[in-house]
Amino acid sequence: MTTFVLVPGAWLGAWAWQDTTEALRGHGHTALPLTLTGLAERAGEGGPQTDLDAHIADITDFVEKNDLREVTLVAHSYAAAPVTGAAGRLGDRLERVVYVDSAPFPEGMRMLDLMPPEAADQLSQQVAAHGDGRRLPMPPFEVLGLSSSLDGLDEGRRDVLSARATPQPFGTYTQRLAGPVEPGPGVDRVLVACRDFQGLLDSGVPMLAFLNHAPWRRFDLPTGHWPMLSAPAELADILHTAVS
């Protein structure tokens, strides 16, 4: 069986993986959801110094201090950035990396580079006005839905997400990813693509073309951008299949 370390996306904590964690354990796996510094129950640990390097350290320290080996590291959304950094540092402890509705980050990229300059400026203004200059509040759903599919998030799930989300340390968006970023050559590489991301991959976007070819293995999941909330059992089934 496999040891999964599950890393949540922006504004989320380990709580978001609860149902997927239970389903993976039902398959016989070890599933360890992780909360990053400054978020959820660790919100009080965040500060102006909380940046991308801090989240990379969270992941590598968790794996090393628990002496985990043959790890499958799972990244959802924003977590692609720190997971890419951790994957380049974990050496032979890492067996597999899985990107859920996300993709590995190239060295030198930052989260703000994924959006138009005017959108990045708007986020910076929100942080200055409503986040003490260092925290990014989760946008309302009508704004989130403009860039990320809300499919599968019914009213109850949206209420949970709104109630439990915590502001994202903005340093994790502004700091560029430094190397090393490449996992070892023997590391298995898996992509779980949700509905909108499937369309991008199938449309032939040049910068994503590599994800459709070996050594990458692609699994499609017809739901929105938060599958651990909208389709947790189905996500667990895909992860189980990917490691079996």
TrEMBL record:
<dbReference type="GO" id="GO:0003824">
    <property type="term" value="F:catalytic activity"/>
</dbReference>
<dbReference type="Pfam" id="PF12697">
    <property type="entry name" value="Abhydrolase_6"/>
</dbReference>
<dbReference type="InterPro" id="IPR029058">
    <property type="entry name" value="AB_hydrolase_fold"/>
</dbReference>
<feature type="domain" description="AB hydrolase-1">
    <location>
        <begin position="4"/>
        <end position="237"/>
    </location>
</feature>
<protein>
    <recommendedName>
        <fullName>AB hydrolase-1 domain-containing protein</fullName>
    </recommendedName>
</protein>
<dbReference type="InterPro" id="IPR052897">
    <property type="entry name" value="Sec-Metab_Biosynth_Hydrolase"/>
</dbReference>
<dbReference type="InterPro" id="IPR000073">
    <property type="entry name" value="AB_hydrolase_1"/>
</dbReference>
